[in-house]
Specification:
globular, five-stranded mixed sheet, three-stranded antiparallel sheet, alpha+beta, 434 residues, single chain
């Protein structure tokens, strides 16, 4: 009898262990940590605190460890970290480098998450830049497009309005130059000689591409007729600028030039307007923005869309939590907060059009006609010094015929893009024409 009672007691204890009440009183499961690498400035601190709080509330027992990174040297640091046993779970990657990390097998394929993540609503060129060989590895976090930042007061004094197309823009710039020709140091537009992002947009406007994939190899597009036309227009605009012909937009920083008060226009990122006002408070209320004009009044210019992706590390320890974090940060609620706080484009154009911010509105007008660089893991080698597109610009602006300089640039471009294994042809060809 005692043996039966002891047996019954043991069975009862086992049942209690399986009951909800017993489960609630059981020892908690080990705490889990999600490690995230984000770039400084991508997610402002208030939004990051809100995001982390929401995520941890929905995932009891999980702690989010966000490690902020700076852009200089990030590609090398990322590659080292993603190859290690201590790989972060989520990483932020630049739109031009996501295919590089995907091709090396360092990122998880998120194609099966596309519906959950709202991929059908993303800005097309951002979706393509996170796609490698037909699979989605990068989820758009934000985008930014270049706009024309201009002096509203100087336009008004000259009786000028925002230009509707590129020919009118050139005439507007010429009139500004004439109106202030007696002022030493005045620039109707500040346009550095090596701003290849601007050239890329002008090239796309004319039906050209920096490079296209023909199914077996990349072919440079810098010696074509559209490239010659784009270079001619760039040179016409640059003739009204005092910027060096052999430097880019960071040497010196454009907003610092604008802040001096002797520049009527510049092509830059929207937050550079606030940077100029911060340096020179007298400019507050005098600066505005309009989209880079296109070749016709019915379509804005094709602008380069920069930005970044979120990706899940192949060697991360928390793939499920990582995917949940990506879904939350790139979802509509958080995207609206980021766009409002940072003035960047959210990953959905429909959402961008609802945000009451002048910078976001101007960028949204151009984003539908935006583009990125050719989608290939070897693209970063093109941007490495010496960047052949920058060299091309300086050569043409200092007197080399466009076709001659273009052939030189295409030679370098093709050497770099065709080095190593060839990519999937269908993917590459599609990505050059978003």
């Amino acid at each position: 009898m005692r043996r039966r009672l002891r047996h019954a007691a043991a069975l009862l204890a086992g049942l209690l262990l399986l009951s909800p009440a017993a489960a609630a009183n059981a020892a908690p499961s080990p705490a889990r940590e999600l490690t995230v690498w984000l770039m400084w400035g991508s997610v402002p601190q208030p939004e990051l605190e809100w995001l982390t709080g929401e995520f941890e509330k929905d995932h009891p027992g999980v702690t989010v460890n966000v490690r902020m990174q700076g852009w200089p040297g990030i590609d090398e640091r990322l590659e080292t970290a993603l190859n290690s046993d201590e790989a972060p779970d989520v990483v932020e990657t630049g739109t031009t480098t996501t295919p590089y990390f995907a091709a090396k097998g360092l990122l998880k394929d998120l194609s099966d998450q596309s519906d959950r993540l709202g991929a059908g609503e993303w800005i097309p060129s951002l979706r393509e830049s996170g796609n490698w060989q037909g699979r989605q590895y990068g989820v758009p976090l934000y985008a930014a497009s270049r706009v024309v930042i201009y002096r509203k007061d100087l336009f008004a004094e000259a009786g000028l309005t925002q230009p509707r197309d590129q020919q009118e823009w050139l005439r507007t710039t010429q009139r500004l130059a004439r109106a202030h020709r007696a002022e030493p140091g005045f620039q109707a537009i500040h346009l550095p000689g090596q701003n290849w992002y601007v050239l890329s947009g002008l090239l796309h406007d004319r039906g050209g591409r920096i490079a296209e994939y023909d199914g077996t190899r990349w072919r440079g597009g810098l010696s074509t007729r559209p490239a010659a036309e784009a270079l001619r227009y760039y040179g016409a605009l640059q003739s009204f600028s005092l910027a060096p012909k052999d430097q880019d937009e960071a040497h010196p920083f454009q907003y610092e030039v604008l802040a001096k008060g002797q520049t009527a226009q510049m092509i830059g990122l929207p937050w550079e307007l606030a940077d100029a006002e911060r340096i020179n408070p007298e400019l507050r209320g005098k600066l505005g923005m309009f989209p880079v004009p296109g070749t016709s009044a019915d379509r804005p210019g094709s602008v380069f869309l920069g930005g970044s992706h979120l990706a899940v590390a192949q060697r991360g320890r928390q793939p499920g939590l990582a995917a949940d974090w990506v879904a939350l940060l790139t979802g509509p609620a958080c995207q609206e907060r980021l766009a409002t706080a940072n003035g960047v484009l959210p990953n959905r154009l429909a959402l961008a059009r609802t945000i009451d911010d002048p910078g976001v509105r101007v960028q949204a007008q151009a984003a539908a006609n935006g583009h990125t660089t050719p989608v290939d893991p070897r693209w970063p080698t093109v941007e490495a010094a010496p960047n052949p597109v920058k060299t091309l610009l300086t050569d043409v602006l200092t007197g080399t015929p466009a076709r001659v300089a273009g052939r030189r640039a295409d030679t370098v471009l093709e050497e770099r893009l065709n080095a190593g294994p060839a990519p999937d042809g269908n993917t590459a060809a599609r990505a050059t024409r978003p």
